[in-house]
Design brief:
About 65% of the residues lie in helices and about 0% in strands. By secondary structure, the chain is an all-alpha fold. Helix 4 runs parallel beside helix 6 and helix 6 packs parallel to helix 8.
Length: about 210
């Protein structure tokens, strides 16, 4: 899978920041300063989300999910990750769901975790919801998630759909197999041609 990484970096921002500037780093440091253990924070955030259903309290839940997403490190227990992913079945608000999906992007799902809800959102969602769901599929190392990532990565790279295709390629960079390299390379070549064409058109316009 490491062979896919150089191609997925084509779609990542070149504006690198120090790890000390990240929200995740600051969340961990603040928790340490307050003497809070990660497990206690995660449990409290989960209770907060569960105890405040409905549209009236959606901002409470979004705050809880942001906290959970930033505190879930790669060494988090499967129970904590499953608790976070399980909240997808409880939410109906589009903005809250996208917040959950954003947090999933950097948290590998436990083996055997069902990706069907995220696959359905990637397939049936529109706009930002489809983009967030597609990015979240990169957390699932399973055939169902890979199949949807391949489908999305194979779509035309045009208009707003380019962002969904980029997220699909990034997802394959995480969980793709050796056979996915040709697809990733093909999308990368298309993006390079598009960027070159855009620069040429821009230069002609300015003449």
């Amino acid at each position: 899978r490491s062979t896919l990484f150089p191609y997925t970096t084509l779609f990542r921002s070149t504006n690198l920041t120090s790890s000390e500037d990240s929200r995740s780093w600051r969340a961990h440091r603040e928790a340490e300063a307050r003497g809070l253990r990660q497990e206690a924070c995660l449990a409290a955030a989960g209770r907060l989300a569960s105890a405040h259903p409905g549209r009236r309290w959606r901002d409470y839940r979004r705050a809880a999910y942001v906290l959970m997403g930033h505190l879930l490190p790669r060494r988090a227990s499967e129970a904590h990750v499953s608790l976070y992913l399980g909240r997808l079945a409880e939410e109906t608000d589009r903005e809250v769901i996208m917040c959950l999906l954003d947090g999933m992007e950097d948290v590998p799902a436990p083996a055997g975790e069902d990706p069907s809800a995220v696959v359905r959102m990637a397939r049936e969602g529109r706009g930002s919801l489809a983009m967030c769901a597609t990015a979240a599929l990169g957390s699932f190392d399973c055939d169902e998630a890979r199949a949807e990532l391949r489908r999305r990565a194979s779509e035309p790279v045009e208009g707003r759909n380019v962002y969904v295709v980029e997220r699909a390629v990034e997802g394959l960079g995480k969980v793709g197999l050796a056979g996915d390299l040709a697809l990733v390379e093909g999308v990368a070549r298309t993006r390079r041609r598009d960027r070159k064409s855009t620069r040429l058109n821009s230069s002609h316009t300015n003449l």
